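anyone seen this seq b4? input:
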Amino acid sequence: MSSVDDLVEYRPTDDEPFMNPRQREYFRKKLESWKEEILRESRETLENLQEESQNHPDMADRASSESDRALELRTRDRQRKLIAKIDAALKRIEDGTYGYCEETGDAIGLARLDARPIATLSLEAQELHERREKVYRDE
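predicted toks r here
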């Protein structure tokens, strides 16, 4: 395998076989790094929330603090769900299904995976899914 420096410099291209070992390693590292960043931010949030648990004598300050806390907790909940998607993507890398559309089996595409490494649908399948979702919402 290549060195860590090569992986940092490496960018997948369409000129190489799709989901070759080097591409899988690139996306695995990208996903693991993203997960670590989310976990680090979550730890910082918990520390901040523990420090913030002070009494605010002013009602406006207390309301503002509670509103900020609720927003932080909603953000962390979304990120908790994102971690589950990252873990699922890492599992797909291990089982060899990463990078292929769950609906069509076609390659998702490197640009889409680089932008959204947890993608499970090709761009075409995602657009079709969103159009169907919009139709059901409009009915």
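DSSP finds five helices and no strands in the chain. The first helix runs from residue 4 to 9. kinda curious what u guys think
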